[in-house]
Structures are given as C-alpha cells and as structure tokens.
Amino acid sequence: MERPGRLLLQSELRVRNAAYDVSLSRSLLIWKRRTSSPVYHPFRPSVCHSVPVSEIISVREEEEENGSRQRDDGSWKKIREREGKDCRQAFTVLYVERCRQHRWRCAEVTFTCSDEAVCQHWVSSIREQLATSRPKHLLVYINPYGGKRQGKRIYEQKVAPLFTQAGISTSVIVTEYANHARDHLKMEAELKKFDGVVCVGGDGMFSEIIHGLIWRTQIDCGVDPNSPEEALSPCSLRIGIIPAGSTDCICFASVGTNDPVTSALHIIVGDSQPLDVCSVHHNNMFLRYSVSLLGYGFYGDVLSDSERKRWMGPARYDFSGLKMFLTHHYYEGTVSYLPAKEIQTCINFQICLFSFVFHPESSGEWRTIRGKFLAINAASMSCACPRSPKGLSPAAHLADGTTDLILVRKCSRFNFLRHLLRHTSKDDQFDLTFIEVHRVRRFRFMPRHCQSDSDLELDLHENSKRQIFSQICKDHPACGCAPAYSSWNCDGEILTHTGIDVRVHGQLIKLFARGIEELPA
Ligand SMILES: CCCCCCCCCCCCC/C=C/[C@@H](O)[C@H](COP(=O)(O)O)NC(=O)CCCCC
Ligand SMILES: Nc1ncnc2c1ncn2[C@@H]1O[C@H](COP(=O)(O)OP(=O)(O)O)[C@@H](O)[C@H]1O
Ligand SMILES: [Ca+2]
C-alpha cells in the first residue's frame, strides 16, 4: 500500500454502524475498522480500505430528514441501518473501483459522525484536495451516426450522470453531418472556456476532433499547419474518448478497454496521457493526421470495401476482412524510412528493445526497401481493440515519437492467415520470415506505377480507369490480374493519394487517459 504522507485530517467515524479510524493525507483516504476484540473473524469483510485521493470522484453531504437522507443533488436515499440519535451527520465519498480487464466502476462509502462541524470539515478538506488538474468545463461532441448509432444514448445514460455527480459542466453538440465537429473546433468553438474536449464516437470521430484541434492550435500559435517540415505546436486541451464507434482502437489502446463508464471516470479524475501524431503529406501537400493505424494493402482494402456496407454496422469489418483475405491482393512499391535508432528490427514483441527516451529528432540515415507487399502498416500505438486485444504492434508506445512500420511481404494465403490469426492471440505475429518491423520517425511510400511514370503521382481520381479494370479483375479472379493500387486506411478514413510522406510529431496531443495499467499477477 502507498504511504499516506503527512495527515491532513484524522477522526473516528462510522461506516455501516461500525467504528472506523479515518484519515486523509494529500495522497490517500484510509478507513480502518476499530477492532474491539483481537480475535480473528474469518467472515468479517476487510478491515482496512484505502483510496488514492487522485481516484476520488466526488464527495457529497447527506442530510437526514424524516428518517431518510437527502443527497445534496436532491435525490433521496433510504437509510440502510438504524443509527443512534447522536449519529446524524453523514457524507459519501465516491471513488474509482477497479474491475476485470481494465474496467473502472464508481464505488461509494458513507461515513457518519455525531458532530456537524466535523462532517463539514471532512467534506471541504476532501473537495480541496480534488481541486487540482481536474476538468470543470468540457466541450462534448456526439456522433449519433457512428458504430451501432448509440452515441447519444450512451452519453445521456452512462456518462452525463457521472459528470453531474463530479460537478463538471458541459456544452454538448450532437453533430449533424460529417466534419461538423472538426469545423466547429477549427473556426467557432470558444476554446478558452473549456478544460477539455470529449469525443463520443469511434476512431473516425476522434480523427475529426484532432484535425480541428491541431489546426486551431497551429493557427493560434502562428505555425503553418500545411508544411511538412514545420515543428507543430502541442495542443493544450486534453481529449477524452467515450467509445461509441465500430473499432474504438484509440480508446482501447490508451485506456485498456472500450467501456464508456471507464472513459468517463478517467476524464473526471483528470488523467493525462500524451500521444504521438503522424502528419501525412503528398508532394508537400497536407493530407491528414494519424494516431493509430496507417494501413496500405489489406487494411486499406478492408476499409474501402466496408464503407459500402455501413448498413451492417461494426460487422462490416468482419465481412470485408474475410473477403479481402480471400482476394489476396498484393501491391508493389518502395518504402523508405528513417529509423528511430540504429537497427530497429523488433523480433520478439514481448521483449521491447527500445528505451522510453523521447528524442525530438533523429540523426539516422534513410533506408529503402522495394518489394511486393500484402500489407504495409504503420502503427503509432499498439492498435489494440476487441478484435485484436494485444493489437497490431503490441510493443508500440503511445508517446515515444516513433511509429512501428510493419511490412508484410507477398506470401501464401496460408502464411498470411497465420499472421492475421496471431493478431487475435498472444503469439508473436512478427516471428515469420515474410514480416519485417522497423521503428521509425519518418517514412515514405511510392507505389511502383508512380515511379515508372517519372515519379509523377496519379491520384486516385486520375486512376479511376485502372480502378474500374481492377474491379473487373477482382470480380473475375480467373484473369489473374491484380490491381495496381490499394488505398491508405488512415485511422479509419480513406486517403485520396497513395504516394505519401509520413512524419511523427512526438506528444502533439493529450488524452484523458493513463495508458494501460499493469494488472497485479
Ligand atoms: C480473416 C481473419 C482476419 C482477422 C484480423 C483481425 C485483426 C484486427 C485488427 C484490427 C486493427 C484495427 C486498427 C484500427 C483501425 C481503425 O482506425 C479503423 C476505423 O475504426 P472506426 O472508426 O471505429 O470504425 N478500423 C478498421 O480499419 C477496421 C479493421 C478491421 C479489420 C478486420
Ligand atoms: N452527424 C453525422 N452524420 C454523418 N456522419 C457523421 C456525423 N458525425 C460524424 N460523422 C462521420 O461519421 C464517420 C464515422 O464515425 P465514427 O464515430 O468513427 O464511427 P465508426 O466507428 O462506426 O466508423 C466519421 O467519418 C465522421 O466524420
Ligand atoms: Ca508511438
């Protein structure tokens, strides 16, 4: 147990009619049952409890009236136990309780005491300790269209009541069209009024939020957001993600679960987790930012195919995943990359070879690989999600200024299936001869057909004729012709160009999260 440090308060209070020694320090609230008899009692519940002050959600006074207690939020609560006449004042502490698989829940304990002044002193002392680094005013964007279209219900039923209990005020915007949230953040939102932004939706909705926030921050700081060489200014507002999408990878990989209540509690306690952001350019023209997966080949094709099946909800990814696995397309091109350190091939994901030191720039040399690839994936975080609990790159860090470039070379369907199935298990998905992993700060990709066209990139629009032929060939596999181009899946959005230049910006944004906690063995 953590040491409590200097005590701010210590009293004898009652919990469910039993006497407890209760103490408060800057770091811990401890309540320890007074033992009247030293005899060990196997059926008595645990006698000593402690809660880090940083994990107290709120404290409220309870007032007794006509045999019931009224909460200070106006609702009523039956007294559960008979109390003596001199034991009428009470306050309730709500705190974080850890459940299975990184889930958090709100637990509560009610302390009673005979003296009103003592009771109020406790309430005000706890509230004073909670005042630091916690958000008080939040700007909330809800995508009512993502995932199973439950965003509004999830927010209203599971999250808003917790924010109210924690004394957080909110301005809520339910989006009416795609890019509504992005454009509101870019141009209209009065950001000075808020301590954070909350995104209710999936990875695509989160992408809208960061595009709005990063762009706005650069304009406010006089930085050109379009230039590939500019050092971008970090965003000061933290972002909370209430998962209500189809994959929810960014939430899952930064919190450990895709549970709305857990996310709401991380926001309330004011957690902070920096996050790397990749900028993606094409011929010096800004395309998009990415924080999770940039995937060409398999994951690009799955996304393109699945968008047409949005009516299926999240199951569209399973359908398109299977279809694209059977299609087994490979793509030719050149990947160049700037390694994060000397040799960056991480063979065993369980042994992470890299230090956690954050280097703003690298002095390494560019390297080049040409080949035929089934997939080119850049994972800036583990990309863990319910479909892949360890993620595409289990050892990737959230905020080390690097991305893990995973090259899956052309191989048999059987071998590719072995690799994909390892996404869903604990086996090392990289320990296969056709997979290479490089930890990089920058990388470029050029599809083969662009190189032979004097490095002139054909964008997807110009490439439409080829796409039509590819579609015919996809539909007639017997002709043996594979499409020349895939497209990039950028955090769940399709990029309009295939030749890209990617740069990692270390710790550009912050989340209301704390990374994945080690669970006790
Ligand atoms: C034939 C068996 C295939 C089994 C493969 C299972 C591997 C799943 C790995 C998923 C990695 C996901 C990385 C995250 C991507 C998201 O950004 C993106 C958009 O999410 P959202 O906005 O919430 O819809 N999701 C995808 O691209 C889905 C990929 C699913 C591939 C099967
Ligand atoms: N009101 C809206 N109507 C239609 N599309 C929207 C709306 N609000 C946001 N979007 C778009 O919906 C897309 C999917 O959102 P997301 O929340 O990521 O759900 P999913 O995980 O199911 O893809 C995003 O591209 C986002 O820009
Ligand atoms: Ca990273």
TrEMBL record:
<dbReference type="GO" id="GO:0001729">
    <property type="term" value="F:ceramide kinase activity"/>
</dbReference>
<dbReference type="Pfam" id="PF00781">
    <property type="entry name" value="DAGK_cat"/>
</dbReference>
<dbReference type="InterPro" id="IPR050187">
    <property type="entry name" value="Lipid_Phosphate_FormReg"/>
</dbReference>
<protein>
    <recommendedName>
        <fullName>DAGKc domain-containing protein</fullName>
    </recommendedName>
</protein>
<dbReference type="Pfam" id="PF19280">
    <property type="entry name" value="CERK_C"/>
</dbReference>
<dbReference type="Pfam" id="PF25382">
    <property type="entry name" value="PH_CERK"/>
</dbReference>
<dbReference type="InterPro" id="IPR057465">
    <property type="entry name" value="CERK_PH"/>
</dbReference>
<dbReference type="GO" id="GO:0006672">
    <property type="term" value="P:ceramide metabolic process"/>
</dbReference>
<dbReference type="InterPro" id="IPR016064">
    <property type="entry name" value="NAD/diacylglycerol_kinase_sf"/>
</dbReference>
<dbReference type="InterPro" id="IPR045363">
    <property type="entry name" value="CERK_C"/>
</dbReference>
<dbReference type="GO" id="GO:0016020">
    <property type="term" value="C:membrane"/>
</dbReference>
<feature type="domain" description="DAGKc">
    <location>
        <begin position="133"/>
        <end position="284"/>
    </location>
</feature>
<dbReference type="InterPro" id="IPR017438">
    <property type="entry name" value="ATP-NAD_kinase_N"/>
</dbReference>
<dbReference type="InterPro" id="IPR001206">
    <property type="entry name" value="Diacylglycerol_kinase_cat_dom"/>
</dbReference>
